[in-house]
């Protein structure tokens, strides 16, 4: 019986401290630049996010974390009877709707016991609570971009849901290691083993429980820590006290032994130390387990799974211990920047979170606070001091730091200085979301963030009928805060059109317009944000010539356009490339050519939709000493693009959504019928107890009115969520209809 032996033989309390263990690790990597003070500080620092599918309990969990760490004195529930709302849902709208709209940052200190030595240790944790709604996906993107680790929250009943898959993708994109927390263990039907299986299969992430539950559903009382072999219970007001017992209750002993064996087996697959010991039937100690879980988690080869019930205040503290034990320090998380003074391909530079290194900080979020513009920054290396200077990397502008604060949702704490690996907010500096700040000496810049395309648009105007300064001020503000929110004026109807990630996204901005800027608005019917693109290459050789008495216009551009795939990291799919060496197009006219190209992309000639996925290569051209101008080159490029576009097999693209529907199993037939009617492609179906779940890809255009259709088809018992998947070509007959309608509209306009 190897399992029994393993458990009995574990040497639980080796005296090697955590700190020693990890300083050795730093020593091998970055010791030359990290001072002892840096190492000691970073070792106790965690920057984490809490992300999950909608309604999994992220905010409820964060509220407990804040309470147990002493950041707040009382717990208020999301949609609680006391009407206060959770600390992290600080916007009125969030509290009213019971959903998180903006990510909120906070920090806390957690005192934990070293799992190996048992010594007391204090950690500083920056936490970002992110929204679950796909409409606010950019908030998740930017949070993950600046975090070193994350807690992936899952519901014990629903398991891996569609948005869990999105969050998983985002975590992979930014190389964010995660620990998993199966919440809602108090719910009837809670089944952590099934959820772990889903993490392995659906997220393709090796996973194993590091705890087993003591009691189930209503009787859920605590957990067994499989690493330290302790039973852990909560007691006292709101579960504030932790009671640890060496004796594992007999009812769960066998289960705990089996799961511990499973944990070791899973770790043996991803960690050499454990696999060697496992193969040799050797002793596996707590120290070895802690080390292996930490290494495998940071290498993103494994996720340890914790269990609990946030709402019932059970087993949240052990999760916090897990954050400290298994998630990376800022120096474990390798971060790189681009050195723009070097040729492309050689620009990547590893950043070192040393206080004395040159400053590199990223503005990842802007917010209009009570006291003016607030810019959230992650400092990667170097420090920022109150009253000191920082430099905007793109513009080279020097900016004074008037006030430096640490955020605690909508409250703040003034600080004098902030070091590397930390998150802070600065008042009164001008920049956009995603900008880098430096010490003015280096040419370092962080790479840009992935920004998805908008999927939905609607017209908006003030109720009063006239566009007040506040109307444009609000739109500009929102645009700057949120890169997925776009605004343009339709040249034909002269209407202001806003585009975003979903109806809720745009609805929230219309509501904020009224509440924050005093401009009640009326909005038009939501329209799908169609796009156009090309499927093949085409050449151009175009001369723009105009002779009207006075100075003429002359410009000639030669080159081609071709499809440009989307950069998976930045989302960029429009590229301008200049190959002109001869001076046939003087260099001062090149920016005008690029401008003309970008202008031509605003409206495709197929159906008047924005064009994406195109590279324009300028190969040659001609100019005239007197008649050439920026205007002439811009117009020549627009003409050239339109000429080539016709021959490049243009198509209209529409947003395709991944839709997840859950309803009682008796409505299965109705739901499948409804999705087929909407020409959806069914990806997956699952029947679990009495519940049926279907995942399908459906065009957004076919999803309008689905809420009421689903309500009708399931007697109000069905629920659905959807998220943007990709843009795909519309069916040929739809393309023809749209192109004909656009041509007709243009013809009548030109008459
Ligand atoms: N039964 C049970 N319900 C819970 C638990 N945790 C949270 N809830 C409930 O689940 C609902 C959603 O909780 P939130 O904390 O708002 O979830 P969220 O993930 O932050 O939601 P969004 O930010 O809107 O995605 C609320 O009604 C909570 O009371 C839990 O452990 N058990």
Automatic annotation (TrEMBL):
A single cellular component GO annotation: mitochondrion
GO biological processes: mitochondrial translational elongation
UniProt keyword terms in alphabetical order: Elongation factor, GTP-binding, Mitochondrion, Nucleotide-binding, Protein biosynthesis, Transit peptide
Pathway terms, separated by semicolons: Protein biosynthesis; polypeptide chain elongation
Entry-linked SMART domains: EFG_C (SM00838), EFG_IV (SM00889)
Source superkingdom: Eukaryota
Domain Tr-type G: 43-331
Predominant place of localization: mitochondrion
Function: Mitochondrial GTPase that catalyzes the GTP-dependent ribosomal translocation step during translation elongation. During this step, the ribosome changes from the pre-translocational (PRE) to the post-translocational (POST) state as the newly formed A-site-bound peptidyl-tRNA and P-site-bound deacylated tRNA move to the P and E sites, respectively. Catalyzes the coordinated movement of the two tRNA molecules, the mRNA and conformational changes in the ribosome. Catalyzes the GTP-dependent ribosomal translocation step during translation elongation. During this step, the ribosome changes from the pre-translocational (PRE) to the post-translocational (POST) state as the newly formed A-site-bound peptidyl-tRNA and P-site-bound deacylated tRNA move to the P and E sites, respectively. Catalyzes the coordinated movement of the two tRNA molecules, the mRNA and conformational changes in the ribosome.
Protein name per the record: Elongation factor G, mitochondrial
Organism: Serendipita indica (strain DSM 11827) (Root endophyte fungus)
């Amino acid at each position: 019986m190897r399992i029994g032996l393993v458990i009995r033989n574990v040497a639980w309390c080796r005296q090697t401290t955590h700190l020693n263990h990890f300083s050795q690790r730093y020593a091998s990597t970055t010791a030359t630049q990290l001072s002892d003070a840096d190492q000691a500080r970073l070792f106790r620092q965690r920057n984490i996010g809490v992300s999950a599918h909608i309604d999994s309990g992220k905010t409820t969990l964060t509220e407990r974390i804040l309470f147990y760490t002493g950041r707040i004195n009382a717990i208020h529930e999301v949609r609680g009877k006391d009407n206060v709302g959770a600390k992290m849902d600080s916007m009125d709208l969030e509290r009213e709707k019971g959903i998180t709209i903006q990510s909120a940052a906070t920090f806390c200190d957690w005192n934990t016991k070293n799992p190996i030595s048992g010594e007391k240790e204090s950690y500083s944790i920056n936490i970002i609570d992110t929204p679950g709604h796909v409409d606010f996906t950019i908030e998740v993107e930017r949070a993950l971009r600046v975090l070193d680790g994350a807690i992936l929250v899952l519901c014990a009943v629903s398991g891996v849901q569609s948005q869990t898959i999105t969050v998983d993708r985002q975590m992979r994109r930014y190389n964010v290691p995660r620990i998993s927390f199966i919440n809602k263990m108090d719910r009837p039907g809670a089944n952590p083993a099934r959820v772990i299986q889903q993490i392995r299969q659906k997220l393709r992430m090796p996973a194993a429980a590091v705890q087993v539950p003591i009691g189930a559903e209503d009787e859920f009382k605590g957990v067994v820590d499989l690493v330290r072999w302790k039973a852990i219970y909560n007691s006292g007001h709101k579960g504030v006290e932790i009671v640890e017992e060496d004796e594992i209750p007999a009812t769960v002993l066998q289960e705990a032994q089996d799961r511990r064996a499973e944990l070791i087996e899973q770790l043996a697959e991803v960690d050499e130390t454990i696999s060697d010991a496992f193969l040799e039937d050797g002793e596996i100690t707590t120290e070895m387990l802690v080390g292996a879980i930490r290494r495998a988690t940071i290498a993103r080869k494994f996720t340890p799974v914790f269990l609990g019930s946030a709402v019932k205040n059970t087993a949240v503290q052990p999760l916090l211990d897990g954050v400290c034990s298994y998630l990376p320090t800022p120096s474990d998380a390798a971060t790189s920047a681009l050195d723009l003074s070097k040729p492309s391909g050689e620009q990547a530079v590893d950043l070192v979170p040393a206080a004395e290194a040159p400053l590199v900080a990223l503005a990842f979020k802007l917010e209009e606070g009570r006291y003016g513009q607030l810019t959230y920054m992650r400092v990667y290396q170097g420090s920022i001091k109150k009253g000191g200077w920082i430099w905007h990397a793109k513009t080279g502008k020097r900016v004074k730091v008037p006030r430096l604060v640490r955020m605690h949702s909508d409250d703040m704490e003034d600080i004098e200085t902030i070091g590397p690996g930390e998150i802070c907010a600065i008042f009164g500096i001008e920049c956009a979301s995603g900008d880098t700040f430096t010490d003015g000496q280096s040419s370092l810049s962080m790479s840009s963030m992935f920004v998805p395309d908008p999927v939905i648009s609607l017209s908006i105007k003030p109720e009063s009928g006239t566009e007040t300064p506040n109307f444009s001020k609000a739109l500009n503000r929102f645009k700057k805060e949120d890169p997925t929110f776009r605004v343009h004026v339709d040249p034909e109807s002269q209407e202001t059109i806003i585009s975003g990630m979903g109806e809720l996204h745009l609805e929230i901005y219309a509501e904020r317009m009224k509440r924050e800027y005093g401009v009640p608005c009326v909005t038009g019917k939501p329209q799908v944000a169609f796009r156009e693109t090309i499927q093949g290459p085409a050449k151009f050789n175009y001369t723009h010539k105009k002779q009207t008495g006075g100075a003429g216009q002359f410009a000639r551009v030669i080159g081609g356009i071709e499809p440009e795939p989307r950069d998976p990291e930045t989302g960029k799919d429009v590229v301008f490339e200049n190959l002109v060496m001869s001076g046939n197009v003087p260099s001062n006219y090149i920016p005008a050519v690029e401008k003309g190209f970008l202008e031509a992309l605003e409206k495709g000639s197929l159906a008047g939709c924005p064009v994406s996925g195109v590279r324009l290569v300028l190969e040659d051209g001609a100019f005239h000493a007197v008649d050439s101008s920026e205007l002439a080159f811009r117009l020549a490029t627009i003409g050239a693009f339109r000429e080539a576009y016709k021959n490049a097999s243009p198509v209209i693209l529409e947003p395709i959504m991944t839709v997840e529907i859950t309803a009682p199993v008796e409505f299965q037939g109705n739901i499948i019928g409804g999705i087929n009617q909407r020409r959806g492609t069914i990806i997956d179906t699952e029947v679990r107890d009495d519940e049926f779940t279907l995942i399908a890809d459906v065009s957004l255009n076919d999803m309008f009115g689905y809420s009421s259709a689903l309500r009708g088809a399931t007697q109000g018992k069905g629920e659905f969520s959807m998220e943007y998947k990709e843009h795909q070509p519309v069916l040929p007959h739809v393309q023809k209809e749209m192109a004909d309608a656009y041509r007709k509209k243009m013809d009548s306009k030109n008459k």
